[in-house]
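May I ask for a single protein's sequence together with how it folds?
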Amino acid sequence: MRLNVKQHVLDYEGKALLTNKTNTDGSPVLDGNNRPVQEPETLRSYLVLALNNKARNETEPLGAEEAAKRYQLSTKLYAKSEVDLTHAECTLLLERIAAIYESPLIVGRIGDILEGREIWLPAESYEEDDAVVAKNLDLTNAASKDPSKPAVQANKKADGGE
């Protein structure tokens, strides 16, 4: 599978997940208001972090062979912007992502990417769709808070009568 490791990982609304931008010494880059500057997180960052860290429930030493395999895959992910991955490498990455991240969004989104599934995003105009639903809402069977008054008032004619 050919994979663009510099692509951004998207949230449920289709916006890139953000991380704090850092200086070479690891300190956060700050803007004019002394707030951290944020930048989109790349798929590569998630994958390499998952390969190079232990999950909370992993207590046994990694072992030389497994460590070498993860190191080789990490360097491969940093070699180019687009890399060719074997099925076994994709499986290892999926296992590591699931072990390290507890977020369904991260595990699901990266799983979609690694397994080549289509990523579903909301329609661009979903707010407009909600407005249309509210505009066309049928209140025929709506209940009033006060049972002695009807839930929906009849339209009055221009002369004030009904």
User: Anything to note?
Assistant: Strands lie at 2-4, 18-20, 38-40, 82-84. The helical segments are 43-51, 64-79, 87-100, 104-114, 126-135.
